[in-house]
Amino acid sequence: MARGKKTEIDKSDIKALQDTIFVVGGKWKLPIIYSICNGNKRFRDIERSIPGITTRMLSRNLKELEDNKLITRKVYTDLPVIVEYEFTEYAKEYGALIKQMIEWGKKHKKILVQN
């Protein structure tokens, strides 16, 4: 972005950004997506992989991710009942984006520590 130069902002871009933040925003959604991306498919495995998340928060966020078509929930009625979560084809592109965010976060932390 050029400094000092005002540019016209496309309001539809702002709306799209707000929609994206709504879908994946919050403290837990990206860590949940990252956990599933790394092969944790069962509820307890996802829960164990994310420090500090409560069962209630995980359940709520998984439901929201499912409502937004980013994950699917499969129930196997064997005994004991097994529930697994998987990415939808639509959501698989998030993997690369999350990895970029992790790299940016590491770089940012180094910059902050240097100062």
| Helix/strand class | mainly alpha
Helix percentage range: 55-70%
CATH 2nd-level architecture: Orthogonal Bundle
Low-pLDDT stretches? none
Task: Going across the biggest sheet, name each strand in turn.
Answer: 1-2
Report how far the terminal alpha carbons are from each other. 24 Å
Q: What series of H and E elements makes up the topology?
A: HHHHEEH
CATH superfamily: Winged helix-like DNA-binding domain superfamily/Winged helix DNA-binding domain
Shape: globular
CATH topology category name: Arc Repressor Mutant, subunit A
Average predicted local confidence, pLDDT: 88
Strand content: 5-15%
Walkthrough of the structure:
It is globular and about 65 Å long. The chain has a two-stranded antiparallel ribbon with strand order 1-2. It has a single domain, classed as Arc Repressor Mutant, subunit A, CATH 1.10.10. The two termini are 24 Å apart. The model has no long low-confidence stretch (mean pLDDT 88). The protein is mainly alpha-helical and 115 residues long.
Give me the secondary-structure topology.
Elements: H1 11-24, H2 29-37, H3 43-49, H4 55-67, E1 71-76, E2 82-87, H5 94-114
Antiparallel strand pairs: 1-2
